[in-house]
User: Fold this.
Amino acid sequence: MPDTELDEGPGSFNHTKFLEDNFNTPDGVINLVAKHFVPPQRPAVAKWFTRGSVPGEWWPVLLYVIEREKGAPISTAAFTKEEGQDYVDSIFS
Assistant:
């Protein structure tokens, strides 16, 4: 597995930590997604863990299945590097 440190830069998201904390393994992703949808192929999911990234089209699916399992919306704040209000303001100005 790759280093699970956050990517460089403000607002970076730690995809690997998100996957490990919510699914543990590629098989965990596949098993949970399969309860609700047709799951992705295992080699593809293994690459998510290896590369530390998730394709954009799978984010809504992953968030949905986690929320269905937990019965409440999840927070992604623990996986995001915060840089304060100045950075947020610079994005939206």
The mean pLDDT is 85. The chain has one domain: 15-92.
